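Late entry, evening session. Most of the bench is empty. Finally got around to the prediction I had been postponing all week. Sequence below, unchanged from the version circulated by S.P.
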Amino acid sequence: MAKPPANHGKQWTPADVAQLKQLAKENTPTRVIGLKMGRTEDSVRAKAGENSVSLKPTNQSPYNRRKP
């Protein structure tokens, strides 16, 4: 089994939530956010959902559409 992350089972602090929002704003991938914060990808997604933080990259167009 994989070793649990550093913050496994710990409560999220307001500073953690602020860091999550900042990383999401910078288009950081969810997996990388989890590694930086010592959390699992699932916990990052769950906390983002609770706080209405979008993890979708803002610099990519949908369906690979390119403007001519």
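Two things to note before I forget:
Residues 14-54 form one domain.
The two ends are 49 Å apart (CA to CA).
Will write this up properly tomorrow.
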